[in-house]
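Pilot study result, target chain (170 residues):
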Amino acid sequence: MSSNTPAAEVVEILNGLFSRFDQVSADLGIEKIKTIGDCYMAVCGLPKAHPDHADRMARMALRMLEETRRYDQEIGLNLQLRIGLNSGPVVAGVIGVTKFIYDLWGDTVNLASRMESTGMPGQIQVTRAVCDRLKGNFQLERRGMVQVKGKGEIETWLLVGQLHTAEVPQ
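Predicted structure:
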């Protein structure tokens, strides 16, 4: 899309969509880390721990797909998200002496990124760590083994929907 659309228009489209994601993030107690181009990076459990972090992120991912569909209808596009989720330990903080930005590092972050990049348009791909935490509350379909750069083959699932609806405590 960016090769056929003026940059200012792409930025306007992304701003409209990401502003919706920001609201969903705030509603669910999720911390937006940053955007890089058309990538939206968020975390749950930092800086405040949430035992239900995986459930919150799953809800976020599902709502991102829904918000994208609504936004598409409003502006007449057919945007397709690929969303990747992983769960595990991360290092978070600010480094350097200029252009301070709170960021995340670690294998958990890298694998979440790989879940997005090897995912399918319009789908939410998750790791076993996420699948194990979501069982019973969300509908998941086994996708199978996916070749992941630096990891080899990883078993993955697709997050399809939520089985139970409940308000998320803040």
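One observation from the pilot: Residues 7 and 13 are 10 Å apart (CA to CA). A full batch analysis is planned for the follow-on phase.
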